[in-house]
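Sync notes, pocket subgroup
Present: LS, DG
LS reminded everyone that the earlier model was apo-only. Rerun requested with coenzyme A included. Inputs:
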Amino acid sequence: MPTIVELAVPHLVPAVPGWAVRGWADVSRAALVEVLGHDDFADPPAASLAAYANQKHTRKAVLLALSGPAGAGGTVPAAADDPGDAAAGDPADVLGYARLDLPLDDNRHLAWIEIAVRAAVRRQGVATALWAAAEERVRRAGRDVVTAWTVHGSERPADGDVVRAPTGAGEVRRRDPAASFALARGFALEQVERHSTLALPVAGDRLAAWRSGAQAQAGPDYRIVQWVDRTPDRWVTASAELQRRMSVDVPLAGLDVHEEVWDEARVRDADVARARAGSRYVLSAVEHLATGSLVAFTQIDLPQDRPTVALQDNTLVHGDHRGRRLGLLVKAANLELLARVQPEVRRLHTWNAAENRHMLAINELMGFRTAGTEGSWQLRLT
Ligand SMILES: CC(C)(COP(=O)(O)OP(=O)(O)OC[C@H]1O[C@@H](n2cnc3c(N)ncnc32)[C@H](O)[C@@H]1OP(=O)(O)O)[C@@H](O)C(=O)NCCC(=O)NCCS
């Protein structure tokens, strides 16, 4: 049986990742490469450590399954210069991890979990031991709904033995290790997301044609507003409102997710946290001139350790302003901005609910190709 320890939260950042964080990042990267065949989503140890150190809006906990002896008090240091790090271990000692996110500003009934185990030690109960420790932690925090995402490749299940999403859109192979593990723990599949990838660059004249066509349909009441890395003072309040709406104005299937609480400080914190984790971003929004409010936005994150990779973050068109081509307008404008800010990007990845026909239609028009699926699972603790 492995020893389960908790990664201590580093007090000072930036900090140099210690062996435990490097082991956690290794396991995560290997699991992604195994399923997807690439490491476009694998964060380097320094980014994982910086994100972990930021506990302001989300209480984060990383539990590690170790082959060696546990650190004092059941915790291991995260930073290389924390006391005790050098004596304690080696990245290879980390057999697997469970990462928990507990929202603090809202959704205080929820815990989000991710578990991965090194391929060489599968089916030996490592994930079961991590889950037992994580479940105990979740119960202690008073949370009673646990959600998880599982990552899958793009091939269709050949044996037809699938779990279908209750939304009617999308399925996951039942014998997939992650699906099997989630089902064995009592999780229900609530939703399937389609992961799609767009090869970049897109020719400038195509982007310009999409943008001008969409702008012509939207009409003169709407104007594109753009920024990079830091929300301009003028738009901080409007951004908070868009983030609040984003949390519930997207297809959520049966996921018990409640509206998020966003204020100006949280918008500023999100900008700072992204920069500390080594990421830039480009954002395009639409201003409704009659009201001066922002009614649509789309954001692309740019992890700076992978300059050819871009990750689509949130996209939203306010419910009162849909059906006017604002979705295509912001997306085309943001790709133009991306091409100026970081022209070396070659792949843009995005995720959409499989039942989200409107968003998928825009992405298909722009040339995104299906690259995989993700399952969204939920468990109610009783
Ligand atoms: C899913 C994963 C975490 C399971 O880790 P593990 O340590 O091998 O799991 P355990 O040994 O504790 O298995 C517990 C139970 O899960 C189920 N299970 C796990 N892997 C399975 C597989 N390949 N096929 C069928 N059932 C499986 C079984 O019910 C198993 O119990 P059993 O061995 O008594 O039959 C591991 O396969 C993994 O890291 N996969 C890649 C990462 C990933 O997809 N993570 C999920 C994202 S949230």
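DG: The radius of gyration is 21 Å.
LS: The mean pLDDT is 92.
Action: DG to write up.
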